[in-house]
Amino acid sequence: METKIRKIDKNQIDEKVIEEAGALLREGKLVAFPTETVYGLGADALQEEAARKTYEAKGRPSDNPLIVHIADYEQLKKIAVNIPPETDILAAHFWPGPLTMIFEKSALVPYGTTGGLDTVAVRMPVDPVAQALIRAAGGFVSAPSANTSGRPSPTTARHVEEDLSGKIDMILDGGTVDIGLESTILDMTVSPPMILRPGAITAEMFEKVIGQVDVDKTLLSEESTQAPKAPGMKYRHYAPKAKLIMVEGDLREEILAIRQISYEADRKGKPIGIIATSETLPFYNHGIVKNIGTRENEKTIARNLYSILREFDEENVDTIYSESFAVQGIGSAIMNRLEKAAGHLRIPASEIVKLQKYRRVTFVSGTDSARGPMAAELLRHCDLKQEYVINSRGIVVLFPEPANQKAEAIMKSARMTLADHSSLQFDDEDIKEDTLVLTIDESQKEKILSEYGSRDNVFTLNEFIGDDTAIPDPYGKPLTAYGECLEVLDKLIKKLADKLNSLMEEEK
Ligand code: TXA
Ligand code: MG
């Protein structure tokens, strides 16, 4: 079947296009259309056969009920019975809008539409294109999200095309949707009403209007702190092709954990995907990083969520790691969708962060012009399981100077360079507890301890690795002395790398 695509501007609706689309729906055909939440796959809700086609096009099991969309509040009484009194107040506040309410169904609604249930889900969207189409179709349009079952919901007409081109009759392209997550579903057949799916209308918003509402307890996944085992496929719904894993903890820990995971993955030549935010983007320098929006306005995150998941399907990554969001306001809906997409795979950030005893390694020599910078550069060339900030400092540095020329010459002969080095005085910034301070000889260690008091992160290099090979001081001697020094340092720094790598194992 050829899928017609018609552009439509919600601020200036072309009635001819709406009439064409409405006629298709009245004939029992399928038309995808924009709503404020996500694109819907429209069909006439009162025709059993149209519902069957909907399930077929989406590849969705036919016991999963559809939402019936209306454009005028009076229409509700035709499809629902025993409508509870709070409905008027809720409708006055939230309709038209991203709210779906569930009622007992009337005889008018076929079981094909409700997946065999005696209840019907009803929503009145605010998008003017959706409203015009519903009216043109006769008033009742069933519309699941217009994606292939199991894929992320569509937030642009392009997404609909990707999934359903050739399977449906028409797509109305009204641009990018506003909210980006499906409507809140509120079950009105129980008292108090119960939220079955979180969305842009939150529990807090309902409570201001009708008092207490319940929340379906199964929405938020069990508080498991277990590392993920096999992907829980049966829970995956809004699923990207790659495996998605939620990293959970406080934001600082999440960043550190994702940095570590992405560093390790790069080292193994298997880069990962990262879902980051405007605020955290600069912290990631490995992997394929995508910005989901700003933490200052979580609506941006909701709007980008599904398109980011789809974008990752175009990337060559097996695993995506995502930062987490606070479960409040629209954050509840964001986390609900992300956790579903992740099949509830999660890693506590603290488990990874606790493996990192140190995050920096700082070598300290007298003037920071030869042995310290050489040691630092040697360590940068080692294969480390963790990404360290590696520096060198001096005990007496009067002003910044480039590295000693002989030190540079000998490093060049070993295909390394100190060309970017500029000497720096050791100071308060360098003694923090996440820093492993390694001095070239005993005198520098004593100097630091006498200045800062007793510390358990300051060692001589020999002491830390348990090797007493003396590091010769080549200063004022010929180039060969620098060569001998490099040889000793090279051996010691390799041992240091092994020791740092084994520290991570010990913690595990
Ligand atoms: O924002 C939305 O609600 C979008 C747009 C297109 O309006 N539609 C949407 O439909 O998300 P869909 O089919 O992707 O999701 C409908 C959800 C399903 O989880 C379904 O199980 C539930 O609503 N649902 C529908 N009727 C129900 C009923 N009678 N009782 C319980 N759940 C119902
Ligand atoms: Mg859906």
UniProtKB/TrEMBL annotation:
SMART domains: LMWPc. Its EC number is 2.7.7.87. Keywords: ATP-binding, Cytoplasm, Nucleotide-binding, Nucleotidyltransferase, Transferase, tRNA processing. Residues 15-201 form the YrdC-like domain. It is found in: Cytoplasm. GO terms for cellular component: cytoplasm. Pfam families: LMWPc, Sua5_C, Sua5_yciO_yrdC. The keyword tRNA processing applies. GO terms for biological process: regulation of translational fidelity; tRNA processing. GO terms for molecular function: ATP binding; double-stranded RNA binding; L-threonylcarbamoyladenylate synthase; tRNA binding. It catalyses: L-threonine + hydrogencarbonate + ATP = L-threonylcarbamoyladenylate + diphosphate + H2O. Belongs to the SUA5 family. This is L-threonylcarbamoyladenylate synthase.
